[in-house]
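Chapter summary example: a protein plus magnesium ion.
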Amino acid sequence: MTLEGFFNPKSIAVVGASRTEGKVGHEILENIKKDGFTGGIYPINPSADEVEGLKCYPDLHSLPEVPELVVVVVPAKFTPGVMEDCAKLGVKSVIIISAGYREIGEEGLKLEQEVVQIAKRAGIRFIGPNCLGLMVPDKQLNASFGGELPEPGGIGYISQSGALLTAIIDMAKAHEIGFSTLVSIGNKADVDELDVMMHLGSHEPTKVIAGYLESINDGDAFVRYAEKISHEKPVLLIKSGGTEAGARAASSHTGSLAGGETAYDVVFDRAGIIRCDSIESQFEWARAFAYQPIPAGNSVAIITNAGGPGIMAADAIEREDLTFAKLSDETMASLAEKLPAAANVTNPVDVLGDSLADRYEHALEVVLDDPSVDIVLVLLTPQAMTECEATAEVVVRLSHAHPDKTMLACFMGAGKVHKALHILRHGNVPDYDSPESAVATIRAMCQYGAWKKRPKRVVKLFTVNRHKVDRIISRHLRRGEREIGETESKEILEAYGFVTPKGSVATTAEQAASIADQLGYPVVLKIWSPDIIHKSDVGGVKVGLVGEQAVMDAFDLMMYRIPQKQPDADIMGVLVQEMCSKGKEVILGMYRDPRFGPMLMFGMGGIMVEVLKDVAFYLAPITAEEARRMLVRTRTFQILKGVRGQKGVDIDKIAEGIQRLSQLVTEFPQIQEMDINPFVIGPEGTTPIAVDARISVEEA
Ligand code: ADP
Ligand code: MG
């Protein structure tokens, strides 16, 4: 259902309009009126004839027309009644400002659910409750108590915190930042972040969507639609920890290594959403996204009148993994022709401290024409002869003349550059306090540009034996067993194309020796018990055993020691296994995030995973390219590629393992957590082996 009625209504009724200054019901009415809303405005209050010079009505039914938008400011307990009135009249859009719902506990939650029911039945969409309201500057619509309307502009803002919005509006004024819309979504009982994002995605004046969120209502829908929205326009979100419980009881390595925010990072990455750490960086980035083109590539040229800031910018470019543009010979020749002999004509181009606006102009024109340059950063310090305002005008004019090139400015200082900054802002060239913040902005833009150019996602499907897995999982669930031990976990993996070490279970030392003889030496002995999850912890793994005697001794020792260490463990026997001698140990794993689904993990494996914590996560189902990117994100990757003359391992085989795991956990929602640790991987052309595995399941 469209949200148009909220953002461009023809008439507004304020239920609970008040004559008393300082009351929310008064503020909202005053804001709607004062900020110049041109449609019908109807105060509703049975105990007043007039509010703010407007005729007041006792209830919604007495109005001369059905209002397109109803703003509700009455105490929570009266809102179901107001909603019923709206339903009867056929009102479609309601904003509930009032607090006193789920945020106060059980009783408030009930009330909120009641309001949701009424709205659902009547096909009413509502924003809130417990919110600040809504602002649409270019429609002079201020249905909020967030103060004066900010300037119109290209940023659409969504906030789960109303109070934060007031600070943002105040800050935006000081920096001359304009908005297309500001929406406070409050408890988001109906309209949530995704609804507003979808609306803003197709809202022409909105060039960038920014927001502050504490949670996401519908994880599945978010994953499905957010990617489409970010293709339309950039989405910049702050996601705070909020009230969601981060800690979960996890039995797997994978589960315990995932932090509360892991899933959000992964989902944002997949959807191309740019996650910001602070309001400052969010607005620094949003201004550039709103008014400058997404860079075609990541090659940056700097023009400066001061050496120091030029070097600072150059350092930042290197740190942020951007490319320092290499100017062409023609560019350098033209620069040399027009600039004094002492000027630097290589990047960073230094027009020198005595530069007037004309030298900046020459330099900019030439550099902008160089096809190897995607982004130009103009630096200026206000020295004795510097023409700050005239230079700002040049920058604005040339930015407009080159709409295909990204242009950012950093005019350093305060009082002396103040007017110049005003010119830049109104000319849609974003300005930055420091070269570093300008370069960080460029990096964010380049990352988004790269994300948009990613190849289409294709998830490969392998031929597998689903039936077999289904049988094993069903049997465990039927018996109420949540943990699938090593042997059967490996059968599951084999059904999905993994190779596991050969071996079988022995219940006597002699049997162990005879299995070992058949396998060939060396072998590994492992305790087999459904009650022992991490076998090494209790001395339940013995590697590198050679000869019958060694095997029998190891068997006896395990049978003697382990019951002492863990008397309650039910011991079924000992697994005698062939030993994989060559390769590196990595971990492949998965935990199911309650909101977003299966999160895959890759990292340094073996018994040190939890100590080193060198892991990367991604959402299943995963593509080959995404699996490879997961690998690259870990430090382990450098080791896997081969260091100091050591041969590297078969990286593509690890990526394939991740994809097979992805298919398994996608096809079996019963799988809650699992580890393949270690997954032993050798040089190119060898087959990786799933040496150890455990899976926990639940009825899905
Ligand atoms: P757990 O994780 O329950 O302690 P594992 O089966 O993962 O038990 O064994 C612990 C470690 O022993 C592995 O990380 C690996 O280094 C080594 N190991 C176990 N089985 C083998 C094997 N078949 N080949 C080579 N190394 C093994
Ligand atoms: Mg293990």
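Key point: Residues 243-247 have pLDDT under 50 and may be disordered.
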